[in-house]
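Here is one chain, start to finish.
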Amino acid sequence: MPNKETAIIYQLKITLKDIKPPIWRRIQVPQEISFRQLHQVLQVAFDWTDSHLHEFECKISKRLVDQIEKNLGEGEAYDLFMLDGFTKSARNLVAIIGDPNQYEDDGFAPEIRFDESDEILATWLMEVKDKCLYTYDFGDDWKHEIVLEEIFQAEPGIRYPRCIKAAKEAPAEDSSLGWMMDEDEDNDVDGDEDHKVKRQRSDAIILAETNEGLEDLVQNWDKVVLVPQQASLVEWDALFECAVRFKELKGWEWMDDSHIFAVQDGESDLTGYCCVMGGGGEIFGLAVYYGPKGIETLLKTLEGKLEEQEYYDQQSLMVSFENRGEVDKDDYELIKSLGRSFRGRNQWPVFRSFAPGLFPWYLTRQEVLFFTRVLEQAVLVCQRSRENLESYKMTEDYVVVARCSILQGDEWVWEDTRKRIEFIPQEEKCLPLVANELDLLRRKKNLKVVPLIIEFDYMYFTEPIQDRVGQRPYFPYHALWIDHEQEYILDVAMVERGNHEEYFQEKMLEIIDRIEVLPKEIWVQRERAYQLLAPITQKLGIKLIIVPTLPVLRNVVEDMKVHFQSL
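Its structure:
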């Protein structure tokens, strides 16, 4: 089974300076992330929109100078410090770390000596109590003090970066004047209608939404640290034992899609919606859908509305009972290491984890433990349903039988209840503008608007990509820009999920620069494509229209499918 090395984690406390009461976040990040990635984490943590310039300031301490001298030699290190205006005696100067490219369009270039994409956090913060300063928006001048609180090994099954505590809502963008006035007026924000005030969330909601934002941010980071810790053989054996008991019941002989049930697991704080597979006589097993994406996938499947592309966005766990020839090497070796053996058709248990944009993969330890508890309850539900099947039928408004674990003293006790399968859609937000506004205004002024219609969409490419051996493969996003009238492909692009939004915006501007005109209209079919292009089209005066179908683009996609299938 794939394994990953245990990483070193930094716990940082980030506090907005000169604001009372204090506004701060406690974040845990891998020590090897870049300052560019740390910038992105801070944007999410404080609910900024990355609409302004930023930089980090780190002191050139004696310890850091000594480390550089050790690595380069005293002579070369001295030359380096002299070149950058440092001397050996000046060991407390500040180094500026930032993005040199962010200044090019503004006509000035301050002395960014260190590129944030190249600099690693552990190079500059080495010991507990080390600190640096992060400044965002040089107009409002929001300064964040970053203090290294703890250094520890990554915990099993935890995904980093993550936020573990949050205090107070951060200010809104472009609101520093209002905050300064508030300090003079006892923070009476409600008394001034001109202030830009965010919705006030509780600290618990801030924490939850920050971690949701971090999950989205780091979907395809190279430096995301997920230490799954391989489940022990005892833990795996318990899962296999439950799977065997489930298989022997053959619940698919009397249960179908109308007999979905829920397992609300208090230990993991996850609720899985379970669907017994096998009524069609093809795939036998159990699918467990959880999380917003899992619930959305399940509901659309039940309603017959699940599109092919949405299959790649599901979040679920699955056990299927396969033939020996369908069991891969890793699964077979695990079964043998447990001293188990199976014979016959549809007898070999195979477990897989499904996650948005990722290839079905092996279970982490946390997934093994969760799935074991789910299967234990699935066995019980199947046994009971056989005696009174009608009472286990899902209602028209998707209310299902549920098993819920509650902590009583030191023990988890399971109880019967009912639960409604409900999906709460996330609010669609326009994405931040990656281009410089002055450049967009220049394009709008200099380029002629012509009666050109561009069809645009992006979708998952159905062939997975694996960047490194042992790394979980992913399905990249594939984007197309089509001239509607000429039925001509203007451009194509492919990029990882999570890195796609900025990339596709930049590609759109590249196309406009290449054709040297502004299209009158851009057609999209999905809301997510609309939100991606809206920041650009609004500035350029291009009509962005959601249409029922993209006829030319769909034909191109079908032709490409036929082509790749023939290879």
